[in-house]
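Write out this protein's structure.
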Amino acid sequence: MEQAGLNWERKHFVFFSIACAVVFLLLGLVFSKNLLVALALGFAGGLGFPRWFINAKRRRRFDAFLNELPNAVDIIVRGVKAGLPLGDCIRIVANEAAEPVASEFQKIVETQVMGISLTDAVARLPERVPVAEANFFAIVVAIQQKAGGGLSEALGNLSKVLRGRKTMKRKIQALSSEAKSSAGIIGALPFLVTGAMYMIAPDYIMLLFTRTAGHIIIACGLFWMFCGIMVMRKMINFDF
């Protein structure tokens, strides 16, 4: 929850999960009028939806952090070249950068105020934002603080690496967008055909929902669809 940028405690998450379970249960009762279906939706809403919601916010926050981090590093590079200490440059980033970089660097500043060294304060950044780019930044600062050397040059090279990774990520997303669109169309096609058949010949398609053999066919079809979607997901998702 902290990585997602939520100021929630455990009790808030529990209350949110209970509320989602109740809402999904009521929706299931209203639309299906089947207690078993409603209970299944309530179970999914109580245990699945809150975690999906938090993970989605976490991913969006990480993406925003990665988009802004190269600009923050450039600010630090210009400040160091102008003769400012690294701590002052981090304060400038905390005041001037966009979220969530500003809040994360503000935590570094607050940690220093508590008496912790700059190296240790920066080393905690990858714990709060567990992405490779944050780890790169912490390693560069730690090496420079212990071994010395040109900090502006090291951070300048880091900025180039970060922007290169960002460009590569966008290229991969662009190249895989066609495959993702095709996978989405293929995954949605059975539901679209079922809806069209219901509009054209409802008596014909309702046999799947009113007879035991139809229930078995639907279950087998959903199972194989799930397998196919997982295979397509594995083929079009790239680690970068």
